[in-house]
Amino acid sequence: MPYVRVTRVEGDGASVSAGANLEAGALLQSGDAKVVLDFHDGGRLEILPHSSARLGQAEPQEMMLAHGMARAVLPAAGNSPRPSIRLATAAGVVELPGAGAVLVAALPGGHAWVACGAGSVSVRDGEVDEEGRPRTSMLVAGQAVALTPALGPATAAPSDAAFAQAMAQGLLEHAAPETAPEVRARSEQGQVDLLAALVAFETLYADGEALRARQRSLARSDPPAARALLPQLVEHSRARLRARERLLVRYERASSIDLELGQPNALEARVVAALSRGRVASQP
Predict the structure, then answer these.
(1) How many angstroms separate the CA atoms of 207 and 199, rounded?
(2) pLDDT, tens digit, for every residue of 47-72?
(3) What are the chain's domains?
(4) Considering only 75-79, 148-152, 189-193, 212-216, which range has the smallest mean pLDDT?
(5) Please, are residues 170 and 113 in contact by the beta-carbon 8 Å criterion?
(6) DSSP-derived 3-state class of residue 4
(7) Which pTM does this prediction carry?
(8) CA-angle at 1, arms to 258 and 6, nearest 5°
């Protein structure tokens, strides 16, 4: 993936320097500084003081936030397609798909707080609704949501960015501390949930490939039968995209928890490989 550039470091104690180019998987400790990162695709992340984060390896503009605060900004860019910014915490994942801005605070205990300052964002916790779709909270400018760790209802957020940051800072300062055994227990559960999502996606992907191979074979020997499979292929493609998103959120959440412990995600290589295969267009 393209590198991420450290544009500015405002303050002392950061683990990176202005002008550095960071690769996927790079760790960042902001210390007493604010660290500003610019992605190749136009997105910007501001890692606020006393925060710990890591660049993701599954998506072009992706970061895991272990604790502290970060602000994601995506400027207007006409009609040119570009990837979303994904900012993950142990509680859930925030996706900024178009021009806008969002503030995310990663709190102790696997909780988080999200405030949309401009545009709109989606917040997912890796669970599914009654119809099997990823459970999602959609926020527009002036709305916030808490993950405690369950995804709560949208509430009003401060319209001023400085007030929103002050509110998030207050939440961080008053949050109950968590013990190392409690974090390890969350990490172990995160790996269990991630493995379940991974196996489900790998199975669905293999079934889809078999279905596509059957359709290609029938296209040569029995065209009407091949056309009859098209609705099934389309529905399977939709199911695979939903399963991929759930796997991606589970991976990002588990990686954020492991970052709190300073350890790698044991399933990362297998998950990233599966997600890369699943990124290929699913249409027949």
Answers:
(1) 12
(2) 999 999 999 999 989 999 999 999 99
(3) 4-174 (2.60.120.1440), 180-278 (1.20.58)
(4) 75-79
(5) no
(6) strand
(7) 0.91
(8) 75
